[in-house]
Amino acid sequence: MSKSRMFTACLLLALSVFSLAWSTSSAAPADQVALATTLGPNENVSQTGEMSEAPQVAVFGDSVRAIWGERSFNAVAVSEKTVGGSWQPLKYFEENTFTKTQFADIAVAGDGTTHIVYAAESSIYHRSKPNGSTTWSGRNLVATDAFPNPVRMAAAPDGSVWVVWRDADGTALRYRRSTNGGLNWSGGDVAAQSGNMFAPDIAVGPDNQPHVVWYLRNVNPNGGVRYADWNGSGWTVGSTGSGYGADPVITVDSNNVQHIAYRQQSGSDWIIRHASRAAGQAWSAHENVRTTPGDAGYAPGLAVDRRGGVHISWSEFNAGGGRDVWYSSKAAAMQAFSAPLNISENGGGWNTRSAIAITESGSATVAHVIYQRGVRGQDFDEIYSRTVRSEDCSSGSGQPSTPSSLRFKLFLPLIHKGC
Q1: What confidence tens digit (pLDDT) does each residue in 383-399 have?
Q2: Over the stretch 144-157, which tens digit does the pLDDT of each residue have?
Q3: I need a surface site. Which of 162, 238, 286, 343 has the fewest CB within 10 A?
Q4: Contact between residue 97 and residue 118 where contact means Cβ atoms under 8 Å apart
């Protein structure tokens, strides 16, 4: 056989082996997802040069909507943008809000109506804005209480709006519900306990049932993360079994599975943890998302996508003594969270208090992370946002970028097959 024919035969054999290896290994394992990547630079949302703090975010379609506090003039501020566009001019509500602890919140109803809620001294107010409108409603009184803080809200598929908060001493968590767009409110206590009740959060599932989480502090020993489920006329209260956990947040996915994230001390470090629970079932094992150097310090951000993927953000110390905001996600079929991604990239900064909302297009998921961006040594913070894109390869929508079980070398150009 001539040398040229022998080379051709060897090449064809190699190609057939390569093709076999590719076909048997190209299907994405259930625990595999493309790495997350940031999209564009960080965006300055507040642009005030003042003390902006404690942002929250919600989405409707491709519209991203945010709220935060402006400490220097005791106001709450709101803005929104279309994905790929710019943030709109700010709208302020100067209500004598003590924004350092009286955090505001935002939610979007199924028809696109934006709802906001905030406390001002001893009063809690609600406002709303129809989708596509630039005009906000007048303020509606939700309730009065002894220095309510923070205030959290959720909008249900049936159009009802739920609000929760703690009183000044943390001896009770209270709720109100509106079934007419925020005009009228009714409710009572979620729970009352002698321990100091902190950091309530609320989410509503596709079954219109709300769920509340919080944690206990200043009791001996410190309590863990508690939850309460609405039972139609009141609240059924229980423990998540977390041990001592702090600053929990909650959301509910499209399959009515509850997800929580919180921070938990581990020696001199802290762990960001996640757990889930199907309706009426026990909580899953609490899994570690990230062990942070030193105190994580602030509540994590949490969101789920329509496939059941979980997205979490948090703050941790960096080598320069400041703080950065990090992000990780886990597709529904994955066994562990993805490698953490630093999304603030502000080594001299003090980046904290993040929140997440999700938009999706095909197999691509985009996490919109909004956070409080400060400068070390200065009483000055702004609200920044960053978008993070990930591709879910576990749903059958595509393939991983390289074969996972290729065991030989072949001097051919590398072929990438994306999701």
Answers
A1: 889 888 876 655 443 33
A2: 999 999 999 999 99
A3: 238
A4: yes
